[in-house]
Amino acid sequence: MTTKMDVISGSEINIKIGDATICYDDFGTSEIPIIFIHGFPFNKETWQPQVEFLRARHRVIAYDIRGFGKSTSGKEESSIGLFADDLIDFMDALQIKKAIVCGLSMGGYILLNAAHRYPERFEVLVLCDTQCNPDTAEGREKRFDSIKKIEAEGLGDYADASVKNLFCKNTFDTNKKLVSDIHETILTTSPSAISATLSALANRSDTCPILSEISLMTLIICGKEDVITPPAKAEILNTGIKNSSLVIIEEAGHLSNLEQVDEFNHALGKFITKTLNRF
Ligand code: MLT
Over the range 217-232, which residues count as b (16 or more CB within 10 Å of their CB) and which as e? Predict the structure, then answer.
């Protein structure tokens, strides 16, 4: 039996997207694929419980954003816009006209950016533990301080500090394997990709003004104890997007899909069924 963070070997495919090589998993078949975009600084393996849950009945794709997991960085300057372009180019390369796309945190920033510019490429949206708000001046300052520290000392302190904010108390108490797996994921990510993406995150634009233009049916999911993108941020998304619904997951922090797999999968599965029943 595989655990939450085990890698399913033998399934990975590499594809050239712009100046990067993107590594992805592609399981199952269905007319409308479901694509997962991970958060920062993680990789596609963080979607494994959802991939496992859906792959018997749907085509499910999870990819590593450039610089993360097994994808290369390329040479272009990182930005949320570039990551969103990669998503669309990736869909083009796989000849996917329209997909159900689910993004967590930075994955949600990328999805909001892409859905605003290319709404016709999305069947519905799933926005998890994310927000439309840009960084505050203080938040930007913190990111630039982290870049300096990572350049001088490496990732050790950064990984230790990051993990402290990612989970709710219950996860720290009862799922030490998940906490240490995620800590390890951060430590083994390329420091230059982390620094480049910290800068991209600091420079991202405010997407709150575009929420009223989104007419796609949208599911918003948020861990009740998420301290990075708290439920108040999810409420802003829910109020701004007209055709949306919000599910708050108890006993979960920022990585709600890994902390409460069953509740998360239940909400996601119900939404996908509702989406597909429209046809
Ligand atoms: C993420 O999980 O993607 C990050 O926490 C996003 C952020 O730092 O804004």
Answer: bbbbbbbbbbebbbbe
Structure confidence by residue, pLDDT tens digits, 58-77: 999 999 999 999 999 999 99
Number of folded domains that form the chain? 1
Q: What CATH number corresponds to the domain at position 19? A: 3.40.50.1820
- Is the minimum distance from the CB of 40 to ligand 1 under 6 angstroms? yes
Is residue 39 lining ligand 1, measured as CB closer than 6 Å? yes
List beta partners, residue 247: 221
Collapse the DSSP code of 157 into the 3-class scheme (helix H, G, I; strand E, B; otherwise coil) and give the result.
helix
Let me know if residue 269 belongs to a domain: yes
| Ligand 1 centroid to residue 15 C-alpha, Å | 25
Answer whether residue 196 is part of any domain.
no
Ligand 1 atom nearest residue 107's Cα: 3
Ligand 1 centroid vs 129 CA: distance in angstroms?
A: 9
38 CA from centroid of ligand 1 (Å): 10
Residue 36 domain-assigned? yes
Q: What is the pLDDT of residue 11?
A: 79
Domain with 254, as residue range(s), is 13-135+205-276
* Confidence band for 1, pLDDT divided at 50, 70 and 90: very low
Convert the pLDDT of each residue in 88-136 to its tens digit.
999 999 999 999 999 999 999 999 999 999 999 999 999 999 999 999 9
Is the confidence at residue 200, as pLDDT, over 50? yes
CB of 94 sitting under 6 A from ligand 1: no
Asked if residue 177 belongs to a domain, the reply is no
In which element (H, E) is residue 35 found?
strand 34-37
Kindly report the protein residue whose alpha carbon is nearest to atom 7 of ligand 1: 106
Q: Count CB neighbours of 113 within 10 A.
A: 23
Q: Please identify, by atom number, the ligand 1 atom nearest to the C-alpha of residue 105.
A: 3
